[in-house]
Amino acid sequence: KICALIIFFTFAIIAHICSFGQEKNSNSQKNWSDKFLGKSMQSMKKVAFKPPTQARSKERVELILKTAKQLIGERGIDDVSMREIADTCGIQIGSLYQYFPNKNILLLTIMKEYYEIMYSQTKELFSSVTSLADFQAKGELAILKFMELFEYDSALNHLWSGARAIPELIHEDNLDSYRNADLIIRTALKFFKGLT
């Protein structure tokens, strides 16, 4: 896991360096992702998960996600089928596909939740950084929190290890790395005024 973190932060810095010179606007992440990842993910965007608006549907989606995480945590990505998730939830398979058109979209939705948790924790820690030493201490704490998620959540372990084989998860992982790189670099640059 330490090697993965070192690779993650190295990629984060490289991704940020690659983005220098782009227009600084609200579309900078989109511009970077299009340039870096190409247009191979356009088909995925057409079938992406759309969160429901009705309370009953939201409850059903939460049940599906919770069940999928539990089953994946017990046996891994490959050994869990959409039918098994539906059966364990007590819903029809068609109802599951109504929310998640395929298994990769379901996995992507779960992984996005994890990415959001990790990013929010890091952002909260870095929001109160007051010095370079504090930045280093908060960075170390962010890494420990990151590792704790893996320690206590077996579904995340399975998803993370299987992510490199699923195009949707590779794409999301790259975007998340860029987002974290941006946060890390922008926080660090506060203490190197001459570089901004």
SSE topology sketch:
Elements: H1 2-19, H2 28-37, H3 42-46, H4 55-75, H5 82-89, H6 93-99, H7 103-126, H8 132-152, H9 154-162, H10 167-189
Helix pairs in contact: 1-10, 4-5, 4-9, 5-6, 7-8, 7-10
Unreliable stretches covering 5 or more consecutive residues: 19-46
Number of strands: 0
Biggest sheet features:
none
Secondary-structure element series: HHHHHHHHHH
Shape annotation: elongated
Q: Output the number of helix runs.
A: 10
Structural class: mainly alpha
Oligomer: single chain
Our Rg estimate from Cα atoms comes to 18 Å
Question: Residue-averaged pLDDT, rounded?
Answer: 77
The share of residues in extended strands comes to under 5%
Q: Which percent range fits the helix content?
A: over 70%
Q: Distance N terminus to C terminus?
A: 32 Å
How would you sum up this structure, described in words?
This protein is mainly alpha-helical and 196 residues long. Helix content is 74%, strand content 0%. The longest helix is centred in the middle third of the chain and has 24 residues, at 103-126. Mean pLDDT is 77; it is low at 19-46.
